[in-house]
Amino acid sequence: ITAAADAWARGSAALPKPWQPQKPVLPVEGMRNVLITSALPYVNNVPHLGNIIGCVLSADTFARYCRLRNWNTLYVCGTDEYGTATETKAVEEGLTPQEICNKYNAIHADIYRWFDISFDYFGRTTTPYQTTIAQDIFQRLLARGFLLQDTVEQLRCEDCQRFLADRFVEGTCPFCSYEEARGDQCDKCGKLINAVELKNPQCKLCRGVPVVKPTQHLFLDLPKLEERLEPWLEQSWATGDWTANARYITRSWIRDGLKPRCITRDLKWGTPVPLDGFRDKVFYVWFDAPIGYLSITANYTDQWERWWKNPQQ
């Protein structure tokens, strides 16, 4: 408090000169380098105050604080654009998924600009860099034996000649009998649903009755990572600043044992899977979207790896 009062008495002339980073902002040897991302907003809607307060505004506040501290700071964000929600919105509005993304990315960017959110770069996930980086990570996982194949029972609409993603199916909830449950969850009772469990399922596109058929998918072999993950978590919990909620959720996953997780989907709109036998599929958006943080940075600077692959800083 004494130091703060003294600084206040000396006035702004005594403050350090504001740091002016180079453009593009890159890590600087000997400085504190801070990379900030906020959760990528999904592209198929107009942002509301809850979206802004929930992640964008808090990250913006922290970015401004870091710059006031003269820390070398990069703040990036962008729209998350792949997945079934985009396809569904495209069908609703009679546009292609790319047209939907172009429309709503511009709306998002304008709103954040109006709120004066201090992004150094606001990008999107439907870019060549996204494809290149996601496919490279996939190939590395494949080469190291962290992927496996398995057969999944899935609903297929013979009239539309396609396997149906969760959001393209509606039916009666097997738990509470709500008649408009989606293929991934019931909005009435809140329970998660496997689409093949729905009673009286209907294709949302043509209202036909889909049939259950087997399809091959690729899975991330998470159980293989448990032995490496547990000691890393113990070290990270001891040295990092995890919230109680983050610790609790992570511990529950480890306690129950990690399970293989599907990373592919029978869709057209997404990052293509570069493997024979799976080239008609795309990456599941949960696998693809987090890579957007890397690809958005790569669209900002071709030296993106200095931020993302720089453990010394």
List the helices and strands and how they pair.
Blueprint: H1 2-10, E1 33-37, H2 49-68, E2 72-79, H3 84-93, H4 97-114, E3 121-124, H5 128-143, E4 147-157, E5 162-163, E6 169-172, E7 181-182, E8 199-203, E9 211-220, H6 226-239, H7 244-256, E10 261-262, E11 264-265, E12 282-283, H8 285-288, H9 292-300, H10 305-308
Helix pairs in contact: 3-4
Keywords, please?
alpha+beta, 10 helices, 18% strand, four-stranded antiparallel beta sheet, 313 residues, Rossmann fold, three-stranded parallel beta sheet, globular, Methionyl-trna Synthetase, domain 2
Q: Termini distance?
A: 31 Å
The rounded Rg comes to 23 Å
Shape designation = globular
Strand-residue proportion = 15-25%
CATH class of the domain at 20-137 and 288-309: Alpha Beta
